TrEMBL record:
<dbReference type="InterPro" id="IPR043128">
    <property type="entry name" value="Rev_trsase/Diguanyl_cyclase"/>
</dbReference>
<dbReference type="GO" id="GO:0005886">
    <property type="term" value="C:plasma membrane"/>
</dbReference>
<dbReference type="Pfam" id="PF08448">
    <property type="entry name" value="PAS_4"/>
</dbReference>
<feature type="domain" description="GGDEF">
    <location>
        <begin position="327"/>
        <end position="464"/>
    </location>
</feature>
<dbReference type="InterPro" id="IPR000014">
    <property type="entry name" value="PAS"/>
</dbReference>
<dbReference type="GO" id="GO:1902201">
    <property type="term" value="P:negative regulation of bacterial-type flagellum-dependent cell motility"/>
</dbReference>
<dbReference type="InterPro" id="IPR029787">
    <property type="entry name" value="Nucleotide_cyclase"/>
</dbReference>
<dbReference type="InterPro" id="IPR050469">
    <property type="entry name" value="Diguanylate_Cyclase"/>
</dbReference>
<feature type="modified residue" description="4-aspartylphosphate">
    <location>
        <position position="61"/>
    </location>
</feature>
<dbReference type="InterPro" id="IPR011006">
    <property type="entry name" value="CheY-like_superfamily"/>
</dbReference>
<dbReference type="InterPro" id="IPR035965">
    <property type="entry name" value="PAS-like_dom_sf"/>
</dbReference>
<dbReference type="GO" id="GO:0052621">
    <property type="term" value="F:diguanylate cyclase activity"/>
</dbReference>
<dbReference type="InterPro" id="IPR001789">
    <property type="entry name" value="Sig_transdc_resp-reg_receiver"/>
</dbReference>
<dbReference type="GO" id="GO:0000160">
    <property type="term" value="P:phosphorelay signal transduction system"/>
</dbReference>
<dbReference type="Pfam" id="PF00072">
    <property type="entry name" value="Response_reg"/>
</dbReference>
<dbReference type="InterPro" id="IPR000160">
    <property type="entry name" value="GGDEF_dom"/>
</dbReference>
<feature type="coiled-coil region">
    <location>
        <begin position="130"/>
        <end position="164"/>
    </location>
</feature>
Length: 472
């Protein structure tokens, strides 16, 4: 690559010298050659000038107040934005040490004062030629890289995945046969308008055949995905079509049952040519553990009935359902009488056993599977009765009292009876838009409080109309 013969008139040079006379002489020399000149009387001013507009070259004195030329050069070379700017030191210091240090900190040349104008210009123009060539080389490299990227993109577009698939079948089969996951590849079947109407199975590994309970011969080459998905999830067909159209992967869990075998699977489908590949993993054990963890998260750890979280969620759902259907919803709130004294007398271990037995008794009294028994907190239990008016709730509450009394759990420190009893508050309401579930809870809680005030071991009916809670 030949350097240009003439000076690039757009190139600008920054002169840094603390002597005004030196700045003037250098400026006059360079200005005559057509260069754009900027001057700085010290290193700090020079830094501002550099970051204002990057110069093509810097002429730098060494001895300057506050920051000398070496320090200035180190600052410039340490910044990636300015590190490529060539710096020529111009100094009266003629010792070898000064020159060596100038090159060590990043200088590209060193000219001693007093200088010869011809030598100065030759060295400046030499560095600018090198700088031009470097920029041209960088531009050429960038251009080539862009062309390579364009070429690579074009190659990727032209790849025929289906052809590669057939040509590499032996290798692919060996990989497929060693996989622990079920793997299959399917090709789009299109109508005359180009719309995907089904998929043909191109290959399938042994794990996939075992998962589906189909022989390999019944799958390879067959157009059957649409029919198969109708028995599983008809929406999946359109999902797979979108994978082919958009290239966006599809990932999903699904439940599959054939004969007496029930399984959970997880699959990921990826676009492959004019079709897709699918990898399926058996996640039955993981799914069962997740379901069990979800169940445990909604169960009280001591009594085995529902916990407060489960109660809140169920009440919200039942409230919405009864509001839509305009059916009554009832709540029974139970409190174990004098339970603190029971704990103090018999100990917390016996107290836990007492709560477990009471929870079992309440659960036996609540017959319908749609109703919910939950531990509300401490020694309190709550029962949600959907589609149940006050009369029905009272009947259930009385059965609960009877079941608990039948336990005959000794309680010598109780005031009236020598065994465990319950105080119960009952509330019922037909939800409508301006009411909140809080009104039902507040009414049952008020009734429970009144039951305790009236001597415990009794049942009080609450009145939701007396509660000042209407906002949802």
């Amino acid at each position: 690559m030949n350097p240009p013969d003439e000076t690039d008139q757009s190139e600008n040079i920054l002169i840094v010298d603390d002597q005004a006379n030196n700045l003037r002489i250098l400026s006059e020399i360079l200005a005559k050659k057509g260069y754009k000149i900027r001057k700085a009387i010290n290193a700090n001013s020079a830094l501002k000038a550099v970051y204002s507009t990057l110069p093509d070259l810097i002429l730098l004195d060494i001895r300057m107040p506050e920051m000398d030329g070496y320090q200035f050069c180190e600052r410039i070379k340490a910044d990636a934005q300015t590190s490529e700017i060539p710096i020529i030191f111009l100094s009266a210091l003629d010792e070898v040490f000064s020159k060596v240090k100038a090159f060590q900190v990043g200088g590209v040349d060193y000219i001693t004062k007093p200088f010869q104008e011809a030598e100065l210009m030759a060295r400046i123009e030499n560095q600018l030629i090198i700088q031009r060539q470097k920029k041209q080389l960088q531009a050429e490299i960038k251009k080539r890289q862009e062309k390579e990227l364009e070429l690579q993109a074009e190659i990727e577009k032209r790849k025929e995945t289906e052809e590669i698939l057939y040509q590499s079948r032996a290798l692919i089969n060996s990989v497929l046969n060693s996989s622990m996951d079920g793997i299959a590849a399917l090709q789009s079947i299109r109508d005359q308008a180009g719309a995907i109407i089904d998929f043909r199975c191109l290959l399938v590994n042994p794990v996939m055949t075992r998962m589906l309970r189909y022989k390999k011969e019944k799958l390879i080459g067959k157009i059957m995905l649409k029919i198969f998905l109708q028995n599983l999830d008809a929406k999946l067909f359109n999902n797979f079509v979108e994978v082919v159209k958009t290239g966006k992967p599809l990932e999903k869990d699904f439940f599959y049952k054939k004969e007496n075998d029930e399984r959970w699977y997880h699959f990921i489908a990826l676009k492959l040519g004019d079709g897709f590949s699918i990898t399926v993993r058996d996640i039955t054990q993981r799914k069962l553990m997740e379901l069990e963890l979800q169940r445990l998260a909604r169960v009280d750890g001591l009594t085995g009935v529902a916990n407060r979280l489960c109660f809140d969620e169920t009440l919200a759902k039942e409230w919405q359902r009864c509001r839509r259907e305009q059916e009554p919803l009832s709540l029974i709130l139970c409190d174990v009488d004098y339970f603190k004294k029971y704990n103090d007398t018999y100990g917390h271990l016996k107290g836990d056993e007492c709560l477990i037995e009471i929870a079992k008794a309440i659960s036996r009294a609540v017959k319908r599977p749609t109703d919910l028994v939950a531990r509300y907190g401490g020694e309190e239990f709550v029962i949600i009765l959907g589609n149940t008016a006050t009369e029905g709730a009272i009947t259930v509450a009385k059965v609960i009292q009877e079941k608990v009394q039948q336990l005959k759990i000794p309680h010598q420190t109780a005031k009236d009876k020598n065994y465990i009893t319950l105080s119960i508050g009952v509330a019922s309401v037909i939800p409508y838009p301006k009411l909140s579930p809080k009104i039902l809870i507040a009414s049952a809680d008020r009734a429970l409080y009144e039951a305790k005030e009236q001597g415990r071991d009794c049942l009080i009916i609450g009145n939701c109309l007396l509660e000042n809670i209407t906002l949802q």
